[in-house]
Amino acid sequence: MANNETDIKIVAFLCNWCTFTAADLAGTSRLKYAPNIRIVKVMCSSRIEPVFILKALLDGADGVLIGGCAPGDCHYSKGNFYARRKIALAKTLAESAGLDSDRIRLSWIPASEGPKFAHVVNEFTEHIKNLGYNPARREVYI
Amino acid sequence: MNKGLWIEGPIKKGILDFLNGLLADQKIKAVLMPAKNKGGDSYAWFLMEKNGMLDSADPAPPVMTTQGANVVSYLTKKGPVWEKTAVLLRPCEYRAVIELAKIKQVDLTNLVLISFDCPGAFPLEKYINGDPKKLDEIFDTCLEKQTELEGARNVCTICHRFSGTGADIEIGLIGGKGEGFWLVPGSRQGEELIEGVAGSKTDNLDVRENAISERTILQETKRNNMLDSFQETVMGPENLLNTLSSCINCHNCSRVCPICFCRECYFDSKALSSEADNILQRAQRKGGLRLPPDLLLFHLGRMTHMSLSCVSCGACEDACPADVPVSMLFALAGRNTQAVFEYEPGRSQDEAVPHTVFKFEELKDFETPYIKEYSKEQ
């Protein structure tokens, strides 16, 4: 059933300096990529609290993509290292609670890599489509 | 370094005598420890000086009413204490104090932390509704003999950090056969305080150390087994919701938690509230909505804040009016997240809380490189 689902929704938290700029570049270069992502721009990937990710998942988002500068390239020099620890925490907790931590993806995409951004989005959308809808989508008791 | 002193005789009396001695010699100016309330019904914390030692002072109460770390944090929130103050803490309380010191909620200046080998504690509800005198007796026997405390809280039965290791002064009961106790200094400060106290010097603590490591191994296995089987019953959103189904959103667990120190909690804040319109939309999207919403988000979100520093003290479960096994849940989450960062809360003050530090090369399993052909997995 999962393959036909076109209304998969993915929340993407992108850092202003690298991945969001890459998304912008993908747009200005008129690259096509899956229309399933909803971008939330944050100033740094370390701004993304594990709670944001869990809230998105519990509220029915089918996937959460986190994009930041490659390690060593952070605009604030070390924000993405903290981000990695936070995402690790979020993933571990999701796993301990039996939520699918595979729905969370952290990828480093530099500002100049528009095509890479499109590629990651396509790849992740495809992956989420294979997983199917998030069961929390219609869970009333959450 | 002085290895320790052996003091023979009844334990609780011995500890009180030791503290009274320190107060009389002006080595410390005050003691912060639990004592029975006036009515004699339950325990509270009291700050006592030389002439104000309460008769009901109890270095090791059978229940944990207020988590000691909360009390210490209350005392030093606005700055350090000016004069030497001894604080008597359970091992879990001591570890919470260390965690709070790392996040600057406790100022350890001039504090002398004293901890003891803890046999566990009774559930607060059981103590208040039961027969306190009888439970006091059972507890005191267990404390002396260092046997398993029957009817202790779940989280106490799987405690694997039951000794006061690391504190300025450690009151050693394990291996003492109930005939007395050791005073083991854990720091320079502790050593100075013990000097001159009447007791026999010991060079050899092997009996105690062996007994501790033996019991640690036993308890660690027990803990892992119990948490593993508990994990099976809560795994998956469905099971987790069943476990939490009696939760009434009172947020007591967060209020009593020593690690949950935020004065304004994100989950009580306006950040999560929205207009009726929004809530209706959410309900429409899901086909219905439980109100107040975000039950799971509260618990999971709280875990993201405190699980790394969770010392498994069980204060949360004592405060829960709906009998949700929160302490086990947080112990489980803590075990899993702490393992990722190889972190143990309260182990050492020099060990930074994981989200405040990082390494350049680590946690590669949690990031996905650019090109990973998901499609090939099919």
Helix content of chain B: 25-40%
How would you classify the quaternary structure?
heterodimer
Find the structural class of chain B using helix and strand composition: alpha/beta
- CATH uppermost class of chain A: Alpha Beta
Question: What is the alpha-carbon Rg of chain A in Å?
Answer: 15 Å
Folded structure, characterized:
The complex is a heterodimer of chains A (142) and B (378). Chain A has 142 residues and is α/β, with parallel strands linked by helices. Chain A has helices at residues 19-28, 50-58, 79-96, 114-131, and strands spanning 10-15, 37-42, 63-68, 104-108. Chain A is globular. In chain A, β3, α3 (79-96) and β4 (104-108) form a beta-alpha-beta unit. Chain A has one domain: Rossmann fold (3-Layer(aba) Sandwich), CATH 3.40.50. Chain B has 378 residues and is of the alpha/beta class. Chain B has 2 domains: 5-224, no CATH class; 227-366, no CATH class. In chain B, α2 runs parallel beside α3 and α8 crosses α14 (326-340). Chain B starts with a strand and ends in a 38-residue tail after the last helix. Classes of the chains: A alpha/beta (142), B alpha/beta (378). The interface between A and B is large, with 50 and 53 residues.
Write a compact overview of the structure shown.
The complex is a heterodimer of chains A (142) and B (378). Chain A has helices at residues 19-28, 50-58, 79-96, 114-131; strands spanning 10-15, 37-42, 63-68, 104-108.
Map the helices and strands:
The complex is a heterodimer of chains A (142) and B (378).
Chain A: E1 10-15, H1 19-28, E2 37-42, H2 50-58, E3 63-68, H3 79-96, E4 104-108, H4 114-131
Parallel strand pairs in A: 1-2, 1-3, 3-4
Helix pairs in contact in A: 1-4, 2-3
Chain B: E1 5-8, H1 11-24, E2 30-36, E3 43-49, H2 68-76, E4 85-89, H3 91-102, E5 111-116, H4 124-129, H5 132-145, H6 154-157, E6 169-172, E7 180-185, H7 188-194, E8 200-201, H8 206-234, H9 236-243, H10 252-256, H11 276-286, H12 295-306, H13 315-319, H14 326-340
Parallel strand pairs in B: 2-4, 4-5, 5-6
Antiparallel strand pairs in B: 1-7, 1-8, 2-3, 6-7
